[in-house]
């Protein structure tokens, strides 16, 4: 499974756990603030991805601004994965 699909699957799991409704489909230009997860959902998502992938790019990389689109979020994970 590729990284993009792993993140989308984790987003769906978190949405179900936190009783949120994700928009479909989530595309590269989908704004994270409009996809259906709230701030707690994103905290849960990052924790879930750290468990699944074994790293947290938000602690390992010097990220100055939080990503605003799904593509930016994915790029941060791709960058961190390539640094592993």
Mind telling me the C-alpha Rg?
A: 12 Å
> Treating each run of at least 4 consecutive H or I residues as one helix, how many helices?
4
Q: Write down the overall geometry.
A: globular
Helical percentage: 55-70%
Order of helices and strands: HHHH
Strand content: under 5%
How widely separated are the two ends?
A: 18 Å
Number of strands: 0
Q: Oligomeric form of this entry?
A: single chain
Rounded mean pLDDT is: 95
Q: Poorly predicted ranges (pLDDT <50, ≥5 residues)?
A: none
Q: Helix- and strand-based class?
A: mainly alpha
Main beta sheet: none
Topology (SSEs and partners):
Blueprint: H1 3-17, H2 39-53, H3 57-60, H4 70-83
Provide an overview of this structure.
This protein is mainly α and 84 residues long. The chain has four helices and no strands. The protein has helices at residues 3-17, 39-53, 57-60, 70-83. The longest helix is centred in the first third of the chain and has 15 residues, at 3-17. The two termini are 18 Å apart.
List keywords for this structure.
single chain; 84 residues; mainly alpha; 4 helices; 57% helix; globular
Summarize the structure.
With 84 residues, this protein is mostly helical. It is built from four helices and no strands.
């Amino acid at each position: 499974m590729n990284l993009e699909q792993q993140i989308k699957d984790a987003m769906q799991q978190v949405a179900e756990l936190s009783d949120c409704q994700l928009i479909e489909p989530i595309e590269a230009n989908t704004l994270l603030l409009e996809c259906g997860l709230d701030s707690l959902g994103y905290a849960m998502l990052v924790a879930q991805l750290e468990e699944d992938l074994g790293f947290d790019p938000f602690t390992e990389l010097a990220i100055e601004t939080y990503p605003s689109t799904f593509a930016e979020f994915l790029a941060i994970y791709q960058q961190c994965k390539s640094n592993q």
